[in-house]
Write a structure and sequence with these properties.
alpha/beta; Metallo-beta-lactamase, Chain A; binds zinc ion
Length: 267
């Protein structure tokens, strides 16, 4: 029994919205609780209020992973940090982000008056390196680059060198459990590294690729459960039809859910 409990996974969706302004969804933020470790992926707008509403301790999160610097993924970071300070966090916190984003984020936090010697919990800032998996408790976290920002990089980087054009997906592994989180992708082939071994859970965005392309890519793959997030407005409005399309395309082999804010998935 103890081993089963330790292996357990709980995913809390604080925000499932996309990059366009959403009136009915918060922006991207997900908490993975795996084997006693608590990993927050992204900090989109709405995280602070969703976190408070969840009743969780402000000591709980062990590590934050910021997939990339679009505001729908980092827009609530400073308010959430302000909450950690005001609610009295003392435990160290690790934050992983694209290398070029760390100094700007730290400057942003300082500009918002969240000085290291004020907030009184130590923060270790770590550049995401796909060649070096990191451990969070007993969970191994592997990052993979996605092509989400590559066309922007080609068009804008030369004239805007301060832009941070890296974006990463993640795989979490713990005692045989394997979970993929797509973050934002530019092409369904960005999912290939996540699909190299069976997944107990795949959390996949659906605003930068079409459902038909995605389901074709996933059909027949060993995926225990598919949770769709980050839907474009049009897909969100038609999510009942989307679920039917997924069922037709994937059959019963891969159970599919369309996540809403506040949804919790347990495996
Ligand atoms: Zn996004």
């Amino acid at each position: 029994m103890a081993a089963a409990a330790k292996r357990a996974l709980e995913l809390t969706c604080f925000g499932v919205g996309e990059g366009w302004p959403c009136s009915d969804r918060r922006h991207s933020s997900f908490l993975y609780s795996i084997g006693g470790a608590h990993i927050l992926v992204d900090a989109g707008e709405g995280l602070s209020s969703a976190y408070k509403a969840s009743g969780r301790s402000y000591e709980q999160v062990d590590r934050v992973l910021l997939s990339h610097l679009h505001s729908d993924h980092v827009g609530s970071l400073s308010m959430w940090f302000q909450g950690l300070w005001l609610e009295g966090r003392r435990r160290p916190l690790a934050v992983s982000a694209p290398a070029g984003g760390i100094d700007p984020i730290r400057n942003w936090l300082e500009a918002t008056l969240l000085f290291p010697d004020l907030i009184r919990f130590p923060v270790s800032w770590e550049a995401i390196d796909p060649r070096q998996p990191v451990q969070c408790g007993d969970v191994r976290i592997q990052a993979f680059p996605t092509t989400h920002l590559e066309s922007l990089r080609r068009s804008f980087q030369a004239r805007n060198p301060r832009g941070v054009f890296d974006c990463f997906s993640f795989v979490f592994e713990h005692e045989g459990l394997r979970v993929g989180h797509s973050s934002d992708i530019g092409d369904v082939n960005d999912l290939e590294p996540l699909l190299q071994a069976p997944l107990d859970l795949l959390v996949c965005e659906l605003s930068h690729v079409s459902p038909a392309e995605l389901f074709l890519k996933l059909r027949g793959r060993p995926i225990g459960r598919l949770v769709l997030v980050h839907l474009s407005r049009e897909l969100w409005a038609g999510r009942t039809a989307l679920k039917s399309q997924a069922r037709r395309a994937l059959g019963s082999a891969i159970p599919v859910s369309v996540a809403g804010d506040g949804d919790v998935f347990r495996i």
